[in-house]
Amino acid sequence: MSRIEILNSGDHQALRLDSPKIGARHFIQVVAAEFATVAAHCPVIFSKNPDDGRFYAGAMLGFKTDENLLNGGDAVAAGFCPLDVIREGFFISNDNVAIDVDNPRFASGEPMFESDGAPSERLRQVQRSLGQFKQGLEETDAFIDTLMALKLIEPIDITLSFDDGERINLAGVYTVSLDALHDLSDDEAIALFRKGWLQLAYTMIGSLKQVGALAARRNRALATAG
């Protein structure tokens, strides 16, 4: 159960702030500015929000719920930490920063505020990341809307067989169609290029090679467990 409050030093002076952790999350929402960094580690794909059916971009860290194949939960060890992880427990409410005071992230860690009520360095980092995430969502939504208008988004059929005999079929995942991208008119391709979105599209397509790398990690983990 969430308990959302507007953040202020008077009410929340005693709260502590733990470092960001990916934990067992297997799919994390990312924004356009993060695509290149994330693609170096795992696939960047589209999925649909179950509440409104809109597409959003995410980093796929595993093939099943609660399966993080990259790092066992240490965001730093993964080599990247998405903004959505850094801002966990924090929200933007109109012009204010709000927090879920019951989020376990606030139970331990460094003080959130200095003795004089000023934000700690870790809190300032979260505040910056929260702003970047909000701005990034707007850019990413515009990117996705353009892809949809150009009919560039297509479903991916990913079926994987693992060394323990398990067969996993990933449903509800999408990417940019390379064929449709190549069929764009010159004007459409140039418009995407000038916005930096052509590079984003190719980054997503290229990141799919990480599916095989994740599968290999899973097989190695299975062998170790066995």
Number of E strands: 12
Look at the structure and give the mean pLDDT.
91
Number of helices: 8
Poorly predicted ranges: none
Provide the succession of SSEs. EHEEHEEHEEEHEEEEHHHH
How does this structure look, described?
The chain is an alpha+beta fold and 226 residues long. The protein has one domain. The protein is built from 8 helices and 12 strands. The longest helix has 29 residues, at 121-149. The radius of gyration is 20 Å and the shape is globular. The two termini are 38 Å apart. The mean pLDDT is 91.
Task: Summarize this structure as a short list of keywords or feature phrases.
226 residues, 37% helix, globular, alpha+beta, three-stranded antiparallel β-sheet
Helix-strand blueprint:
Blueprint: E1 4-6, H1 9-12, E2 16-17, E3 27-29, H2 35-39, E4 44-48, E5 55-60, H3 83-86, E6 90-93, E7 96-100, E8 110-111, H4 121-149, E9 153-155, E10 158-161, E11 167-170, E12 174-176, H5 178-182, H6 186-195, H7 197-207, H8 210-225
Antiparallel strand pairs: 1-7, 2-8, 3-5, 4-5, 6-7, 9-12, 10-11
